[in-house]
Design goal:
Elements (H helix, E strand, L loop, with lengths): L13 H4 L10 H9 L4 H7 L24 E2 L2 H8 L2 E7 L2 E7 L4 E6 L5 E8 L2 E5 L7 E8 L2 E5 L4 E8 L21 H17 L6 H11 L9 H9 L5 H7 L2 H16 L12 E8 H5 L24 E8 L7 E9 L2 E4 L7 H6 L3 H15 L10
Helix pairs in contact: 2-5, 8-9
Amino acid sequence: MALSPRVAWSAFSVVMVAASAADAACSQSDVYKLKQAGIPVSEIRVLCPPEGPPVAPAPAQPGTASAAATGQKLNGGAIQAALTGNTASGVQGGTAWRQYFGADGTTSYHRTGKDPRQGSWAVRGDQYCERWSADAQWECTDLFRDGETLIWRYPAADWPAKTLPGKQMAEASVTPEKPTPPAAADQGESLAERYRKSVDDFWRLPSRDPQLYDAAREILRPLSSRFLQGPEREAYMQRLRPSLADYHAVYRPLLADALAAVQKALWDSGLLIRPEGDQTEIDVVILTTDDLLDKRVAVPLTFARYAEVLPHLQRGVPIAMFRYRAPGARAGLAFDGLARVSDRWVFVPKPWMGLAPAKAAGETQRIEAEVKEQAARLEATTPHYPRT
């Protein structure tokens, strides 16, 4: 599965491709080079939408992916039962696609007019995961069922599909002539490097508060140890568990209450940060909620969904983005949401998971107007931090 080309062109991700994709759409050579460079497929779809520059999603119509935002979340066993040995068939961006899920963990994907792709799929916890090369990282997402429709819930869009019994890839078997691999030095290669540089730039942002930076690394370091396992790791994680007051210190009441309710089940079931054994290096970037609200920092795609929770942020709260990586590696396992509240760190990951109940209460538009008014007043005096 891949992201829809109809993605929200967030202010946080514009910086990454402003010098390239904003001026011209990616060619097939560009996409090929990005894949060869190991850029995750989901992010290639944002950098190089197949059908032109990214645009804001149109209002949802009945039967579309956006309209299918409801449904029951499937657990790991239900995902395995729904997909194993079956084919998913859907239409996204006006183009039909099919994907078969083999019992041996292999998967084949075909979008009409494109070359078929072979990869692997798995169920990890209660999420569907896939990767398209043996050395690629697994990309995971939630899977929902709405009646007879399965819905892959990606950050930029939902991908609804019907399931067909067995392997039924024939109707999506139009295979175009395979393009000749592009030359080594062209725009695709430079685009991949610009993408990587934008991510590197983010992780190299200078610390404005060395003591706070050191404190964050100190609290995160034990979690990189392969010797902190089982009950000891679980007990250590509970030190980071936020109270209801902590949620309210970081987010406005509506989202704070929703997050406390939604994340209670995660904490009760043993929420863990678990890097791979060789991921002993820790990178930390500490922003404040003011940085996010005033868009002072270009946040990479990994954390771009913070754009959705801007209207609910309290001001003046330090938030650490962090990742664990192997020594010398350029990428790693990234996390968000380590917040500093009342002289202690609390972990509030993926705050957008509380948006559905918050939006249902109808407060978002009022808060957005208030935030825009505050931003307008601060625009003349707000400094922009240099990127090094």
